[in-house]
Amino acid sequence: MARRATAGASGSGGAGGAGGSRVKGARRPEVRLPQLEPHGGEELEPDGDYDGLEFLEADFAGQDGAGARFMDCALRSCALDETRLHHARFLDSVLTGIRGVGTDLAESTLRDVELIDARLGGVQLHGAALERVVIRGGKIDYLNLRTAVLKDVVFESCVLVEPDFGGARLERVEFVDCTLKGADLTAATLKDVDLRGAAVLEIARGIDRLAGAVISPSQLLDLAPALAAEVGIRVEG
Fold it and tell me: What is the pTM of this model?
């Protein structure tokens, strides 16, 4: 399979003025899948090895695929309610229209992955490693990314409700035309994180961790009361 990573558009944008430091854009994956074989419909297996398969409208609810490897695969319109995928690896794969509540992807690896139009709630990605990942469209409620490592990740045209980035490390992460509601950045570490494109930006906790991010002037005005409270500034008329 041939693929290449491409740099994000924000790489040419500046975080500061002329001569200032610039925010580095995320490298996006370009996944080109080979000719896929249809999955036979069997249940997932712990430590299973899936290569070059298409999973179409499969119902994996409650199944155990912990430690499984998905390489050059497409998951389309699959149900992942309470599916156990702890320590799973998704490599050079596309996940389209997946849905599920309580999906366990803790300590998993997603590398060169496109996640499109997902409908997920309470998905566990704590301790996971995401590299060259695009999450486009859809809605994810209560996304748990605590202590995860995100590098070259783009959230695009999606809705994230109360995502938890507590203790996570984010490097070259972009939020493009997406809604970020009630985000928790407690103890997170940010480097070259571009929030300027977020349509809605709400930080519930950890606003002091925004060092290493770039925001727009209008976002600064919106966040000003929380920033002032964080440093103990009283604003009175």
Answer: 0.88
